[in-house]
Amino acid sequence: MGETRIGTVGIVVDDPEVTGRINAILHEYADIIVGRLGIPYRSRGVSIIALAVDGSMDAISGMTGKIGKLQGVSVKAAISRR
Fold it and tell me: Which NCBIfam families does the UniProt record give (predicted)?
């Protein structure tokens, strides 16, 4: 797999209609996901997904890029330097 990095990915879902597509993308990248926490924030009408990842920069960027293209979704990654 080459050089891998450890990081976190935060996803805020404003549109519940896209959760199926998010889950499909996460399933596609299951090999780099170490842990996942989903929080339905009902009073604000959003869902928050926190991921711990360990993978190549290409894989992490590919996953966040696909998720970020979805309407009603915000995604940010914080990656270790080593």
Answer: hyd_TM1266
